[in-house]
Amino acid sequence: MKEKENINKFTAKYGKELPYSVPDGYFDSLPFRIQEYCLTQSPVQTKQKVTVWQAIRAQISLAAGFVALAFLAAGAYYVLQPTSNTPSVLSNDDYIEIIQNNIYDFDEENLINEIQPYRLDDSIQSYNDEMIQYLLDQDIDYTTLIEQY
Fold first, then answer.
1. DSSP state of 80
2. CA distance linking residue 126 with residue 122, whole number of Å
3. Which of 44, 47, 78, 99 is deepest in the core (most CB within 10 A)?
4. Are 106 and 115 a contacting pair, CB within 8 Å?
5. pLDDT tens profile 57-94
6. Rounded to whole angstroms, how far apart are CA atoms 78 and 133?
7. What sign has the CA pseudo-torsion 118, 121, 122, 126?
8. Alpha-carbon distance 127 to 24, whole Å?
9. How far is CA 16 from the centre of its chain?
10. What sign has the CA pseudo-torsion 53, 56, 61, 67?
């Protein structure tokens, strides 16, 4: 009853009537009508039988999927591995570090034999040749150079 009084106060206050109306007892019978509608619309569901072949086929396809995934992972692993065909080149600092860390593995004779092919004079000689070539290209006189020093 309070709802009707509130509605009447609302319509009296604003001077408008509600555009829709609901029949009496509509919401009281709504759950019963929904159940009745659902029962008439849904067919009786029967349990579908699964044959042996369907069960085996599903498991075989699942196993084949796992095998394919394993082959893809193994192939990706081998493809993505870094490969280097060039041998690693060691610098002089690397040789020094190797000798410092493993000094007891080398004897003096081995170290001298390794140093023999790489003479210090070779690098100085090539450096002097480059300097002489530079002086010749720049047309610098030897006596002028001696006077500078």
1. S
2. 6
3. 99
4. no
5. 999 999 999 999 999 999 999 888 877 666 666 677 77
6. 53
7. positive
8. 113
9. 65
10. negative
